[in-house]
Design a protein that fits this description.
Blueprint: H1 11-19, H2 22-43, H3 45-48, H4 55-77, H5 91-115, E1 119-124, H6 130-163, H7 165-178, H8 188-209, H9 213-229, E2 243-247, H10 251-254, H11 264-284, E3 288-290, H12 291-296, E4 316-318
Antiparallel strand pairs: 1-2, 3-4
């Protein structure tokens, strides 16, 4: 049928279209998350009171985050979790690649500190037992799932659908950095560092792969190797570790009370890896802008849309790399 002869949308359809705008879907999702957290506090107060650093608290957070993501994706988008970056086929492989990257990144950061004389191993720590290592690895796996589902799977993804890749990257990174502002030893420098080395890196990894498994693995390994393996503070939090270590030197190098994440080596190496992922995303044509912004900027929509944003409709224009 010719577009001129299509029936005009009904009032209900117009309202549904407005309510389904990505930024409003983000609002409904946040309301659902806080509502579910409140309900949990009423129904199971003992579970709600578990600390985030405990296995029980981490399991609670991961479960709640996944349930909220699944519910909103099914309810508002009519899709399954595989459409937003959590497919079961290939999950182990993607997670494993991310885990290796995270381990290598924190090993490189620690090696730079050691070469600068700012990191010394003084012996084995309290976490140098198989049960302790296993608990720490599981804890940070659950933490990685929670933070990546909330920050990349929900916040970044819906901001991206509404505002485009670059705006979502900046906004989600800033919010991720500010989200760590209340941690022990946090400063303005640590928040900026987290935004650059982790907020940008993890969002870029998601954009490049369109999978949450890789950033989950990267995030989990980052925390696990930083704290329980190499003996540093994880975002200001001390915990039992395999290696007992001391950090000496200026805060701009070691990160001070917050830990190596607030130091220059982590910022430089993390941001460099994030840049690699952004280049990869650009080359794959995974960066895009929403249709309304493309029209506002006067861009011509490409003939084909090779990679639409997960969960988005057809009103999307991809920013593909220039053809040589």
């Amino acid at each position: 049928m010719h577009p001129d002869h299509l029936p005009a949308p009904t009032t209900v359809q117009k309202v549904a279209r407005v309510l389904g705008f990505p930024l409003l879907r983000l609002l409904w999702t946040l309301l659902l998350f806080f509502g579910a957290s409140w309900a949990l506090g009423q129904l199971a107060p003992a579970v709600a009171r578990l600390g985030n650093e405990t296995l029980g608290g981490a399991l609670r957070n991961a479960t709640l985050s996944l349930l909220v993501l699944w519910t909103t994706v099914r309810l508002f988008e009519g899709k399954q979790l595989d459409a937003v970056g959590l497919p079961l086929p290939g999950a182990l492989s993607a997670f494993g690649r991310g885990y290796l990257l995270g381990a290598a990144l924190l090993t490189a950061v620690t090696a730079v500190l050691w070469a600068a004389g700012a990191y010394q191993v003084t012996g084995l720590g309290e976490g140098a037992t198989a049960p302790a290592v296993g608990r720490a690895a599981l804890l940070f796996l659950l933490v990685g799932i929670t933070e990546e589902v909330l920050t990349r799977g929900i916040l970044f993804r819906l901001l991206e659908q509404g505002l485009g890749s670059w705006a979502a990257l900046v906004l989600s990174a800033v919010l991720f950095g500010l989200g760590h502002r209340g941690n022990p030893g946090a400063t303005l420098q640590s928040s900026l560092a987290i935004a650059l080395e982790a907020g940008v890196l993890l969002a870029a990894a998601y954009v490049a792969t369109r999978s949450l498994w890789l950033p989950i693995g990267l995030h989990a390994a980052w925390d696990f190797f930083e704290g329980p393996v190499y003996g540093a503070r994880v975002s200001g939090i001390e915990m039992p570790s395999v290696l007992q270590a001391s950090f000496t030197g200026p805060a701009w190098l070691t990160g001070g009370e917050f830990g190596p994440e607030a130091g220059v080596p982590a910022v430089v190496l993390g941001t460099a890896l994030g840049t690699v992922f952004l280049v990869l995303a650009w080359r794959r044509g995974h960066l895009f802008t929403p249709g309304w912004l493309a029209r506002l900027l006067g861009r011509r929509r490409p003939a084909a849309v090779p990679v639409p944003p997960p969960g988005a409709g057809a009103d999307v224009a991809v920013l593909a790399p220039p053809q040589s």
